[in-house]
Amino acid sequence: MERETGSRREAVRQAAALWVVRLDDAACSAADRAAFEAWRDESHEHEAAFEREAVAWARLARLRAMRPSAEPLDRDLLAPERRPVLSRLGQSTWARGMAAAAVLALSVAGVTTFGGGTAYATAIGERRVVVLSDNSRIELNTDSKVVVRYRRGVREVRLVRGEAVFEAASDARPFVVRANDAVMQADGVSELAVRLGSDGAAVTVKRGVVALDPEPTEPKDELRLKAGVAAVYNATGSRARTISDGEIDRVLAWRQGAIALNGQSLDQAVAEFNRYNRQQVRIVDPAIAGLRLAGYFQTTEPRSFVDAVTSAFPVKASEDADGDIRLSRKG
Amino acid sequence: MMAQEDEDRRAWFRREILPLEPDLLAYARRFCRDGQTDPEDLVHEAFARAIACRTWREVGNPGAFATRILRNCALDALRRRKVLTITAVADFDRIEPLDEAPSAQAVIESREELRLLAEAIAELPTQCRRVFTLRKVYSLSPDEIAVRLGLSVSTVEKHLVKGLRYCSDKLGRRIGRKSKVDEGRSWSARRDHDAKR
């Protein structure tokens, strides 16, 4: 829908530019002028767009000053100088933004070793990056736990609680992630995000290929998930779908300390915030639970999320005795 | 005389409102952080509303007038959406309406402008650039250009439209101005923006 308005704007500006070009031509007929007047009278949008292009056209007349005196006509007068313009490319705000991504300190707290495995855990509101002996990396989201067991023939990581991103480095041994009974095996260098559900998990593959076997005890087909595929499995079965880069960014926004909502309902959004904070948000009015919203928020700032909700919707917020935030309908 | 009145109104728009485009675009971007609306669309719509103003003679501060219109366009765009972006709604509480005129450098230095325009033409594809050079530097008519380059007149027109569209957008964005506005939607910029109220 929004994209259509963009192309509509462009269509109007193109039409305006064509009128500017035509009217400035001595060959322009009275009929052409009348047609132009009719077009301009159709809307103020046309009128304003015409003025914009006409002013630019008039300003371009200054180029006549560049005409060399008493020289034959040179149609390539304004050809670009042969000079590399690569230096400009390194300055994109995107590149800068990505470079500014949070660098997380490696921490050794919250590490426990037992029974041939090492456990890494995060508290509520905490994120942690763990670099393993083979240079594979695990990034743990809030309130999460993994147990790492590297053995001779296999590198195995179990997601016990919460959510994590696994970046498997290349190694002779297979890299296996276990989550709620399912087994995922990464092929070579790959990056996958896994989030536990109540009886299954959601898997998003960002790089490489991952073979997913939801029930290793059952002789069933495994799913091969390529980069850009998200899969969900639980007791009722599994399904996979291709997702856009934008959606992958939203799924992984927590790595930037953010929650990216894109049409989720208020109760889903609240559940998401509650994972990151001790101060919980509660919806006391089922009538408002289904409001759909989008936006980009800090995981640790439920207050600014609540402020945004109350200013956008007929919703009011109050704090109860134990400091939690209650959302109810206004009026 | 109606026609004269219309012409005066357009002249006012050309003189007072159009030169504000780079500033309005920078202002519009602050309402479009969620990517649901194109800031250029907001400015385009604001221009249409501004030029429609019959009481333009009473506008004492064109900058404040234009930014107020832009704000209304942003609010209307917000209301039209199927999914309400609460970040954008929050922005409305956060983004101050500008009461003073934006710092429109209405007149860029003439040598500077000439350089900018020449640069813009240099960035056009070869054939388009040649057509444009013959028209705007050497003042040849579209018919003469068509003969000289062995093109049809309508092709010459197409190249001229393409070149003009490129230049008018470039002038509207006025790249290389002092005021540095975040051109992209980098995560870090959005983070900083969202971080504190």
UniProtKB/TrEMBL annotation, chain A:
It comes from the Bacteria. Coiled coil: none annotated. GO terms for molecular function: sigma factor antagonist activity. InterPro entries: FecR (IPR006860), FecR_N (IPR032623), Ferrdict_sens_TM (IPR012373). Residues 14-52 form the FecR N-terminal domain. Transmembrane segments: none annotated. This is DUF4880 domain-containing protein. Pfam families: DUF4880, FecR. Residues 120-210 form the FecR protein domain.
